[in-house]
Design a protein that fits this description.
Mean pLDDT of chain B: 91
Low-confidence stretches of chain A: none
Strand order of the largest sheet of chain B: 1-9-8-3-4
Number of helices of chain A: 0
Largest sheet of chain A: 7 strands, mixed
Low-confidence stretches of chain B: none
Shape of chain A: globular
Number of helices of chain B: 0
Order of helices and strands of chain B: EEEEEEEEE
Distance between the termini of chain B: 37 Å
Strand content of chain B: over 45%
Mean pLDDT of chain A: 93
Structural class of chain A: mainly beta
Strand content of chain A: over 45%
Oligomer: heterodimer
C-alpha cells in the first residue's frame, strides 16, 4: 500500500546542531507539506512544495529549509537547532491539479527535542 | 480562505451521537468545508468534506446549513476511540495549482466518556 513515512520518529539534539527530518511518500503526489505542532498553537505550516524543484515558505519558516529533488521526498533541515524548535513535526502530501480534492495524507510525526 | 470558529471542547457519552459544530460565516461560494481529526500523538486524518449538500461516509455525516455559514459533523455512534481533536477547515477544493495548503485552527477536543 502507498504510504507516507517520517524518520526519525524521535530525536534529541543540542542547540546549534544541524538536524534533518526525512519525509518519504509513495503516492507519487506532487504536493508535500511540513507542519509543526506545539501546545497552544495547533498545526502551523513551515514549508511546502508543489513539485520537483519547487519550494515555498509557510507561516513559520524562519530557521528551516527544504529541498525537493524528486517527487517522493521532502527533507526538512534545521540549519542550527534552537530550543524554540522543540516540537512535533508532521509531513503531509496531496494530489495536484484536477485530482486534488483537498485531502491531505499525513505521516505519523517526528518528535524533536533541542536541549 | 474563510476563518472557522469551533468550541474548544465537548463531551459525549459512548454510543451516543456526537455533534460537532463549526461556524464559517465568511465562506465563499467556491469554498468547501473539510473535517479532519487528530487522535493523540498521531497525524491528522481526513474525515469528510462537502460544498452545500449533506454528505455521509463510513466515518461520519456532514450537515451544512442552507446559507452555508455553519456546519455540523455527526459521529452517529461515538466510541472511546473517537476521542480526538476535530478540525473544521474551509478551502477551495480544486484550486488549479494555485493553493493546495490547508490552514488548521485549534479545533475541538471531543472526549467520549464510557
Amino acid at each position: 500500500d502507498a504510504e507516507i513515512t517520517q524518520s526519525p520518529r524521535h530525536k534529541i539534539t543540542e542547540t546549534g546542531r544541524q538536524v534533518t527530518l526525512a519525509c518519504h511518500q509513495t503516492w507519487n503526489h506532487n504536493n508535500m507539506f511540513w507542519y509543526r505542532q506545539d501546545l497552544g498553537h495547533g498545526l502551523r505550516l513551515i514549508h511546502y512544495s508543489y513539485g520537483v524543484q519547487d519550494t515555498n515558505k509557510g507561516e513559520v519558516s524562519d530557521g528551516y529549509s527544504v529541498s525537493r529533488s524528486n517527487t517522493e521526498d521532502l527533507p526538512l533541515t534545521l540549519e542550527s537547532a534552537a530550543s524554540s524548535q522543540t516540537s512535533v513535526y508532521f509531513c503531509a502530501s496531496s494530489e495536484s491539479g484536477s485530482l486534488n480534492t483537498g485531502e491531505l495524507f499525513f505521516g505519523e510525526g517526528s518528535r524533536l527535542t533541542v536541549l | 480562505d474563510a476563518k472557522t470558529t469551533q468550541p474548544t471542547s465537548m463531551d459525549c457519552a459512548e454510543g451516543r451521537a456526537a455533534n460537532l459544530p463549526c461556524n464559517h460565516s465568511t465562506i465563499s461560494g467556491n469554498e468547501y468545508v473539510y473535517w479532519y481529526r487528530q487522535i493523540h500523538s498521531q497525524g491528522p486524518q481526513y474525515i469528510i468534506h462537502g460544498l452545500k449538500n449533506n454528505e455521509t461516509n463510513e466515518m461520519a455525516s456532514l450537515i451544512i446549513t442552507e446559507d452555508r455559514k455553519s456546519s455540523t459533523l455527526i459521529l452517529p455512534h461515538a466510541t472511546l476511540r473517537d476521542t480526538a481533536v476535530y478540525y473544521c477547515i474551509v478551502r477551495v477544493a480544486r484550486s488549479g495549482g494555485s493553493n493546495y495548503k490547508l490552514t488548521f485552527g485549534k479545533g475541538t477536543l471531543l472526549t467520549v466518556n464510557p
